Structures are given as structure tokens and as C-alpha cells.
């Protein structure tokens, strides 16, 4: 016989007994007391009810056909351990008692059972169940919160990692020279890894020694001189080079011979085409943080990106070299046409570079000057020999054609799209400081500095050498023209630098 009442509000009790009388009495009594009641005459019937109904408490006999009370209790414990099970039996044995307790039975009533006793027991187990369920919910809640916090932390970590990797990627995407790459390596190490010192060393093949190329130090007062790499550091670097593996000393305990003031240390090799080219080192000397495996990973990622950047630059520098030799061959061909101008570009370049150095130009600017100096008259390739090699002075018309060479030169260089600075120098090497030059009549600082430098070098060499239409000038005369041109044809600062070199005998040596 199966009786059930469905409700979500009142507590529902399941009575399981093969004695019909007991089920009827209990059912009537507890319904009267305001409970919903379900009954089953054996364990199997009870299981079916439990599958369909939400039961709050179960009273069961032990000895029943099919599935007995202890098996039912075990089933309930496995499927929903929040349902309290109370065993009712006429023959309690020690063995049964132990089994029932093992199966999660919460109470034990001896038949014949007093209804009042059952009610007291029910109220108690329901109260305990309430606490038990609340406890589980609370525990789940706490676990949920913990899990959420962990996920949040992981997410933040991932975002941070992506930010760092992204930063590294963008740092090494645009680089103009190898030395720029090395500088970025050490600067990024300080910024991202919170290192106090970062140094980049190139490994010299022949002497098997690291040479420091650049360093970044966030604690200048504590910085050691870059000269003479510490012996222990040098040894660790060479070990890293030979096994090609990055090294992490998270906590310096003196075992590897590192200086005491280094608290945490990393070395990462930078390999180009599978050969170690240099190493990056990072040290912590003051702060509480220590390097971790993660930092080593970031640093390795960074040196990989830097290696690619260097490879690309080498490729570019190679293209640059090839291009230069091709174009310079044209210049030499032009100079060969005119025996008077042979070696002119070469001398102009040397003088211009000497002035550039005197004026504090960067090595990048000197490179540009070298390129533009050699090629400044490349546009003459487009000018007919009849004009170019004319033994007398030019007519106005011829001079107009000659003047085109700076624009032709700029357009030859400009077609490559790579050499914007070089193009500008070639285009403007005949501008005058007072604005009366060509092709654009630019004046003073409107003219690129390197073009102003090239202009002095060009005129000086042109005047000091033979031309098809005139003999070379006397030194005094040449010097007079340059001096008179100070502030008119030429930038006064460039003229001053030129004369400093001239009187020191430097120009004489070049010519
Ligand atoms: Fe020229």
C-alpha cells in the first residue's frame, strides 16, 4: 500500500514497515500532527518513493521482504545523506546496531514503538537535519567563494601575463638598430621584472668572455661599475652559454659564489640561429620580491623576441649594404666620366663625418651621413656629359639643368622607400643658410642639419680640387670663401666646427 502526500512546505515523513497496522497508526497520527506522510511496505517501495518525492525523514523496520531496512538505510546514505533514517525493530542485536550506525542511521527505536516517543525523536532529528543541511549549504557557499576567488586570481594572473607578453611583443616589434634592441632588453627587464639591475653581454667567441654592451640600473647609488664583471657572475654567464639554458637563483644563499648584495638573480641566453650571441642578466638587490620561474619565462620570451628583431635588422642591414654598394657603383661611374671629380664623394663624406663627430652627431646620424655623402651627387647620372663635362662655365640654362641633380638624386633614393633621412640630405645639399639655395629655398634650421654639414664639406672639396672648367683654388681663397659664407651660404655652427678641425690639421689629413 502506497500513500503519499505532496507538498513543498510541510515536512514529509516516510514510514516503511511490512506491518500494515503500524503504517496506518503512524500515518494517521502524524498527519494529524500536521506532517505529510508517505508509506511503503518494504525497502524497494521506499526507494521508488524516494526517487519521486522529497523526503525529510524516514522511519523503517529492519526485517522486510525484498529490501530490508538496513539495505534501505545504506541506499539513502549513498543517494542523499541529508535524510535522517530512524530504525524501528523488535529484536535489536549488537551486530545490527553497529551495522545501522555504519549506514548513517541517526536513531534507533525499539518496538513496540510509542507514537509520542516517535514524535520526540522526529522533532529532534529534523532539527539536527536542518542544522546539517545549513552547514552543507554554508560549506558549499564557502567553497564556492573560494573557488570564485581562485578563478578571479587566475584570471587576473592571465590578464597580467597577457599584458606583459603584449608589452614585450610591442617593445621589440619596432627597433632601429641592434644597440636599440639591447637597450630595450635591459630597460624592459627593469620595468616588467622589477629588477634593480639588468645587463646585456655579448659573448666573444675568441676569448670566451662576456662583454657588457649596455646596462639599466634602477638604484644608481648601489650600482657597481660595469667595468670588470664580477668573477662569479662571469663564470655563471659562461656556464649558461655552454649549456644554453637559462638560470634562476631565486634566493642567493651564497652557494654559486654570487656577491652578497645580489639577493635574487637570473641569466637568460639570447641565441641567434641556435647559437648563443649574448646573455641578459637581472638582479634584485633591494626589494622584498624574488624572481620566480614565471619571471624566467618572461625573460626567455623577451630574449626570443629580441633575437628575432636582431635577425631582421641583420637582414635589413644586409639589404642596406647591398643597396649602398649598387648605388655607389653608379656614383663611381659618374666620377669616372669626369676625371676631375674622382674621389670627390669619398672626400666629402670623410669631411662631413669629421664635422658631424665634432658637432656631437649620433652614430645613427653618422651612418646616414656616410650613405648620403657618398651618394649626394648620384642625380648627376641623369645629366648629359656635354653639360657635366663642359670645360667652361655654365650658361644659365645649363646651370638650371645641373641644379636638377639634387632632385633626381632624391627621387632615385626615394623610390626605395627605406631611406627617408638619406633622401632629405641628398635633396637639400645645395640649400643655402640664407634661403637662396635650391631646390626649395629652405633657410636656416629648415634645412636638415646633416644637409647643412654636407654643404660645407661639398663646397670646400669642390673648391680645393681641379674642375673641368677651372683649376683648384688657392687654400687662402678657399678658406676666405668658407669664412665669408658663414651665416650666408653656410650654417655658422657648422663653419665653426669645420674651422676647429681645419686648424687642428684634421681636414688636411683627409684631403
Ligand atoms: Fe651636388
- Within CATH, the superfamily of the largest domain carries the name Hypothetical protein af1432
Largest β sheet strand count, sense and barrel closure: 5 strands, parallel
Residue windows where pLDDT falls under 50 for at least 5 positions: 1-8, 223-228
Please give the count of helices: 18
Shape from CA axes?
rod-shaped
Overview of this protein structure:
- With 511 residues, the chain is α/β, with parallel strands linked by helices.
- The protein folds into three domains: 12-136, 3-Layer(aba) Sandwich (Rossmann fold); 178-313, 2-Layer Sandwich (Beta-Lactamase), CATH 3.30.450; 338-510, Hypothetical protein af1432, CATH 1.10.3210.
- Helices cover 54% and strands 13% of the residues.
- The protein is built from 18 helices and ten strands.
- The protein has helices at 20-32, 43-52, 69-79, 94-102, 115-173, 178-193, 231-243, 293-337, 344-358, 363-375, 385-388, 396-403, 405-414, 420-427, 449-464, 475-485, 492-503, 506-510, and strands at 12-16, 36-40, 57-61, 85-89, 105-110, 197-204, 209-217, 247-249, 264-272, 275-284.
- The strands form two sheets. Strands 2-1-3-4-5 form a five-stranded parallel beta sheet, sandwiched between helices. Strands 7-6-10-9-8 form a five-stranded antiparallel beta sheet, with helices on both faces.
- Helix 5 runs antiparallel to helix 6 (178-193), helix 9 crosses helix 15 (449-464) and helix 13 packs antiparallel against helix 14 (420-427).
- The chain is rod-shaped and about 140 Å long.
- The structure holds fe (ii) ion (FE2).
